[in-house]
Specification:
The chain has 373 residues and is α/β, with parallel strands linked by helices. The chain has twelve helices and 13 strands. The protein is globular, with a radius of gyration of 21 Å. The protein has a seven-stranded mixed beta sheet with strand order 1-9-8-5-4-2-3, sandwiched between helices. It has a two-stranded antiparallel sheet with strand order 6-7. Strands 10-11 form a two-stranded antiparallel ribbon. The model has no long low-confidence stretch (mean pLDDT 96).
């Protein structure tokens, strides 16, 4: 079979509703208003409502959502923030941009922060816990929220990969003080460029974000503080409004593909993803684990099936965070996952032929003679 399957394909969901996207883009272009206008205001209302939140503030990126959150919560030099060790490095950067220190906790069997290990990491310097809903699955938020309440800690959620995911029937992003979202194009609710947002139930926090994102200005040329230029633009907001109306449909399609993978992939060397009790997943990634990861990746590539590793280098072992002085072996579960994980193709618009080809090719992987690493 001559078939090339990329790990992600973005244009198919665009073509599915091409007319709606193009009409909205032209509407914004013809409006003559491109920054902080009607589209941003309406998107903020709609996204807040979708997420069962009182307030949403549109920003330029998911990283801006993170670092501005810790800035607004007053977390800085001398403070510590507990965060998962196996997250994407942007989660950690949101902490360290403010000169606070990340304190890493190992993941659980579902790739999210292990709530049973959080309290052991709390010190008198701890000011917050950052829960990351990795790969689209909601973390164990009831237990995490209980710990934060007990120790009077801020709770921040990184929802960059969990648009629409729930824990115990409640949307991710609504358990803590602030929920941080990215709209990078590959996200479940992806823009056609960069974008981000926060959701919160706190009116004052939302107001602070509105000031910070616009050069620290509440009123033009009246700057209350040293802020940032972090504004979700009108075109992206308008296009996100269109996509938001289809998000549940997109997520349901991803669930269907994941269910086919879970039912169809049978290979003795693979650990398939498992969804925790009370958690839902929107399947931002379909991540498998095997000690033959590199061999499987090469085998799939030989058959023109492209995969990715999310993420090959944990933040504590990256060159950027050498200053933390955490040597290999510091986070053994995180490091083992990093050496074993592989993300299979999963995207909106994936055909049945493509799904079947991935399943059959994975199942045909021959471990005989493979090096037991």
């Amino acid at each position: 079979m001559n078939m090339k399957i990329l790990q992600n394909v973005l244009d198919r969901q665009f073509f599915q509703y091409q007319r709606e996207y193009e009409e909205k883009a032209l509407e914004v272009l013809r409006s003559g208003w491109y920054i902080l206008g009607k589209e941003v205001t309406e998107f903020e209302k709609e996204f807040a409502s979708y997420n069962q939140s009182r307030y949403c503030v549109g920003l330029a990126s998911g990283l801006d959502a993170l670092w501005l959150t810790f800035r607004i919560l007053g977390i800085g030099e001398g403070d510590e923030v507990i965060t998962p060790g196996n997250t994407y490095i942007a989660s950690v950067m949101g902490i360290t941009i403010n000169h606070a220190a990340p304190v890493f906790v190992e993941p659980d069997n579902y790739y999210n922060i292990n709530p049973d290990q959080i309290e052991d990491k709390i010190t008198d310097k701890t000011k917050a816990v950052l829960a990351v809903h990795l790969y689209g699955q909601a973390a164990q938020m009831n237990q995490i929220k209980k710990i934060c309440k007990k120790h009077h800690l801020f709770l921040v959620e990184d929802c960059a990969q969990s648009h629409g995911a729930c824990y115990d029937g409640k949307m991710t992003g609504t358990f803590g003080d602030v929920g941080c979202f990215s709209f990078y194009p590959s996200k479940n609710l992806g823009a056609f460029g960069d974008g981000g947002a926060i959701v919160t139930q706190d009116k004052e926090i939302a107001k602070q974000f509105q000031i910070y994102r616009n050069y620290g200005s509440e009123k033009r040329y009246h700057n209350k503080l040293i802020g940032a230029n972090s504004r979700l633009d009108e075109i992206q907001a308008g296009l996100l409004r269109v996509k938001l109306t289809h998000l549940e449909e997109y997520n349901e399609e991803r669930r269907g593909i994941a269910e086919q993978y879970l039912a169809g992939i049978h290979h003795p060397s693979l650990h398939l993803p498992v969804t925790a009790a009370k958690s839902s997943s929107v399947w931002h990634q379909f991540v498998i684990r095997t000690k033959y990861r590199d061999e499987l990746r090469d085998y799939l590539l030989e058959h023109d099936i492209h995969t990715l590793i999310h993420y090959p280098i944990p933040p504590h072992l990256s060159e950027a965070y050498r200053c933390l002085q955490l040597p290999p072996g510091s986070l053994p579960v995180t490091e083992r996952y990093a050496s074993e994980i592989l993300s299979l193709p999963l995207y909106n618009g994936m055909t049945q032929e493509e799904i079947d080809f991935v399943i059959n090719t994975v199942n045909s992987f021959d471990m005989t003679g493979q090096k037991n690493r």
